[in-house]
Amino acid sequence: MMMMALLGHRARVLLDCEMMGSWRRGVHRLTGLWAAGVVEGQRTLPREGAAAAPKSLKEMPGPGTFSNLVEFFWRDGFGRIHEIQQKHIREYGRIFKSHFGPQFVVSIADRDMIAQVLRAEREAPQRANMESWQEYRDLRGRSTGLISAEGKKWLAMRSVLRQKILRPKDVFVYSGGVNEVIDDLIKRIQTLRSCEEDGETVTNVNDLYFKYSMEAVATIIYECRLGCLQNEVPKETLEYIEALELMFSMFKTTMYAGAIPKWLRPFIPKPWREFCRSWDGLFKFSQIHVDDKLREIQACLDRGEEVRGGLLTAILISKELTLEELYANMTEMLLAGVDTTSFTLSWATYLLAKNPQVQQTVYNQIVQNLGKDTVPHAEDVPKLPLIRAVLKETLRLFPVLPGNGRVTQDDLVLGGYLIPKGTQLALCHYSTSYDQEYFKAAEDFRPERWLRHGHLDRVENFGSIPFGYGIRSCIGRRVAELEIHLALIRLLQKFEIQTSPKTQTVLPKTHGLLCPSGVINVRYVDRQ
Ligand code: HEM
């Protein structure tokens, strides 16, 4: 759900990102910048005799506060953030400024400028102003987690978690558990399609993948099964799903809560109230699982047995995080890990159904390099570059986080403008993903564009960085990739995914994250 955004604060960033302003395309390229001055760290000083000093923010174009308010509050701009992002870039160019309520944002939709910002990051980059998230935590005496923490606290927690889930080999061990969840996903598909007249269509795959993603991520982070994919979902789990739906609605809530200044809250109390209610539900959800695991470990120790387990057990035993930090991180990881994965799987399924030739090529590679029935494990995925390319291309066309944010930690010259330290930047990933200069035939689904000589191209393309880049990038990336790669491989081994008369054209909408604006219906046809 970063909610980027992941992320609630991300949601604010996204919102700001949409309000972009104008500028002449290509003028503010990095090359021009370097020519204009001597770079000292991130700051560029005018060279003696150099043509022009950087311009001030006053000279930067962008939409006015009033037009933003109209766009967002009167024309439901919150649902069209990705489109507004593109509109503003057409009007103002690849760098522009916006005011939104109390917030001031400089938006960037230039691949080189994005690379410049991310490559120059210090040891603890700040994503966005997280005031509202921090305020909730202060109010309830809760800790921050990775998404909401900053500075030394973030760095300390990140160092602990990075070692447990960010390296590919850390997540290899979860293949078995994820495959068990995929067994249930396949059974669920068979049940659902048997209820349809043609015996093949599954309506609303979004719902199906939401349950899959929740089950898979819970298997990894809570080390337990929730029963989301059973025909009769346990009552307890239904309550959990409700809590997660709250979490989903929170992205929008966060946007409103962040955009409304504190002094206005007594007059417009609902967004802040709902924001707190959503967080209460989420924290409660995580606390139950962490406490259960803690009791289990204690019982094990009391019996004098060796304690074995996965991520949660390892963190609890190592005591590298306090209990409050653990609640907060489990809460924020779940928040970030369910909708992101399920939307991406929904879009991948939709794109494969709409592009049968691409699907056939991917299937052929699976059969050739893995086999028709071999259950894949993480170690097998590198043999299937096309599956990885399908995920990359899906995330280029539908980046779950259509924008991201950074607060500048030094003065910085970008696109010929001097951006002072402490400025909120919005990185407009949706727009760069569709920029024809960065991606030929950018509207088309072409996974092979990510391959070079049949292998995944390792060179980072800053036009599409769906998991972010660098030290503050997505910590759940390997988990998400594992869940998506394994699910896609096994679904393609088992079924040909086809369109049905019920398959409508589905466009994206922004609901905090970029998500399908309608239900996706496809046929899962048994392979002969
Ligand atoms: C397709 C799936 C996913 C996508 C596209 C995605 C994308 C992102 C992006 C763009 C960021 C911000 C990175 C930055 O600021 O540079 C992020 C951060 C984060 N993601 Fe993901 N994510 C996904 C799945 C997951 C999963 C499965 C988890 C947890 C298991 C997760 C946990 C997090 C956390 C905790 C952060 C904050 C990291 C930090 O600030 O240190 N994400 N994600």
Automatic annotation (TrEMBL):
Keywords assigned by UniProt, alphabetized: Heme, Iron, Membrane, Metal-binding, Monooxygenase, Oxidoreductase
Chief location of this protein within or outside the cell: membrane
SUPFAM superfamilies: Cytochrome P450 (SSF48264)
GO cellular component, one term: mitochondrial inner membrane
Positions of heme binding: 474
GO BP, sorted A to Z: C21-steroid hormone biosynthetic process; cellular response to peptide hormone stimulus; cholesterol metabolic process; cortisol metabolic process; glucocorticoid biosynthetic process
Alphabetical list of InterPro entries matching this protein: CYP11_CYP27_families, Cyt_P450, Cyt_P450_CS, Cyt_P450_E_grp-I, Cyt_P450_sf
Coiled-coil annotated residue ranges, if any: none
Cofactor(s) demanded: heme
Localization: Membrane
Top-level lineage group: Eukaryota
Gene Ontology molecular function: heme binding; iron ion binding; monooxygenase activity; oxidoreductase activity, acting on paired donors, with incorporation or reduction of molecular oxygen
Similarity section: Belongs to the cytochrome P450 family.
Name of the protein this chain belongs to: Cytochrome P450 27C1
